[in-house]
């Protein structure tokens, strides 16, 4: 390898002396790794150097340059994460970790090429599992480096890498707004996938390149002259076209390359909206225009906010010329508002976190030295989703907090009903286990299995997704009337005993849940329409009744009583269908006209949303609430006292419940009784705690002590 100082000076001439020293240090480590372990050196020149060189074309920051160099495969077993952090800092270490994971991930398979939904889930997964979105940019540069040397590989490998590039990495480049990478990824992949068509289009472009450039130059000269005559200051330039995009348009319009008019295209950037329409009028007055090709995206912006005037005119030689006219502000939005741009191009949906991260990345690429932007790079893309795999490699997209049981219902309703266990990455896990992105899940089923009523108890944590909850409720609704009434009576009896209630005011419950009579109440309980948490909230425990005192008039505040996605200044309204009150578990639904509507999580309208509508859901919670706590004694009967106190204490710690007293008594038959004094806010929280303790394998019974 050449002298590291020469390489750093050649590739990064504009770096400061300190930054160049860091680059030289990284290059020296790569060089030494190649000497110490020649077998790890698959090529005479380290890949990381070429990748860093590719990144310089988009003016990336020093952290990304260092991470690109240090992600070279030569360093896999030579430099661990701790060593990288100690020598180059935590930002670089995190980037290197993410890039190494992205370079080694091997989920894509040929079957995904015909399954757009699977490729989309994989793209989301790659974004969700990286801590820093710049790692994705570095990975794109690694893929470009791979494609540039792909001609030396076998045909089967070439086609696989090219197909994966078009399905996964080119769309990611598009989403990040890095058009320079997008075009190169697409064109090189197309070259390997369909070399004959690639050469045919390239030859047609080359044959007519001089003629095409002459046409554009003449048109630009005439247009510039017309603008000067009317004293309009504008930036006018030709827009290059790329081979893969030309092929896509040929295929979409079923036209040969000779009939594609927008191979000749120019863009006009002006100062204000008035100038846009003035330029349009000049163009239409000077050349014949094609009415059906005119689009006014200024008066009628695209859904993503994109604004511009698009028109096609015929020049004096009969050539069709596409013209885009926009203001500088519109142009900046089109370039920096890349989240909106890729949503339009790919049919995606609004995601505030995506916009923040991607726009920050674009700003960094275009304005070097913006160190204050670095704090914005922690990835929040799809942070509310988890992406897991079936044993056959199919990707499943679930909401964060989803369990193996949610996964089972996402695969098929019958698999969910018959589910009795699950393996996650080959290890048996409880059905309440919260899945993490990248895990492989295998469901264990039984023949003719039926769902359990416990699955509908939110205190036990079996189900998280509205779809799965709806499927279980639907199953119980279809059961016999008598079975549901009996099950409802049993559930009410069990819950009242657990809460230590000597009697239940049935008429009060009927009024509370707006039921016609006791049988209808029992049916609703048996079918799961009323879950344990709702029932516990309606049951009255005198000791947990709110203190009776008069509240002073609260001060006026601009903040909402509901916090949505960690923000409390959003426009929200309470849904009339379920009328949530402070203390209920809630979720937000983004509407088109009324901001965010707040529903109870068990609202029937929420439970029956289709997959498209479920993407409008956002996390929500009550904000600024003051909760009085009450001392509540509970009794736990267990088979054994071994580890009982530890297990219960850990459970209460995660539930954020304080223990003020605990006493463990062991009996001659090795069974044990654990008495505890807890600080509880309300009946719902008590029910949740008792329900979770009852799920411990050692516990026989748990109840409030009266």
TrEMBL record:
Family according to the record: Belongs to the relA/spoT family.
Organism: Methylomonas methanica (strain DSM 25384 / MC09)
SMART domains recorded: RelA_SpoT
Listed PROSITE patterns: TGS (PS51880)
Molecular function as annotated in GO: GTP diphosphokinase activity; guanosine-3',5'-bis(diphosphate) 3'-diphosphatase activity
Domain TGS: 382-445
Gene Ontology CC annotation, any one: plasma membrane
Pfam family, one: HD_4
Pathway: Purine metabolism
Task performed by this protein: In eubacteria ppGpp (guanosine 3'-diphosphate 5'-diphosphate) is a mediator of the stringent response that coordinates a variety of cellular activities in response to changes in nutritional abundance.
Protein's UniProt name: GTP pyrophosphokinase
InterPro entries noted in UniProt: ACT-like_dom_sf, ACT_dom, Beta-grasp_dom_sf, NT_sf, RelA/Spo_fam, RelA_SpoT, TGS, TGS-like
One annotated GO biological process: response to starvation
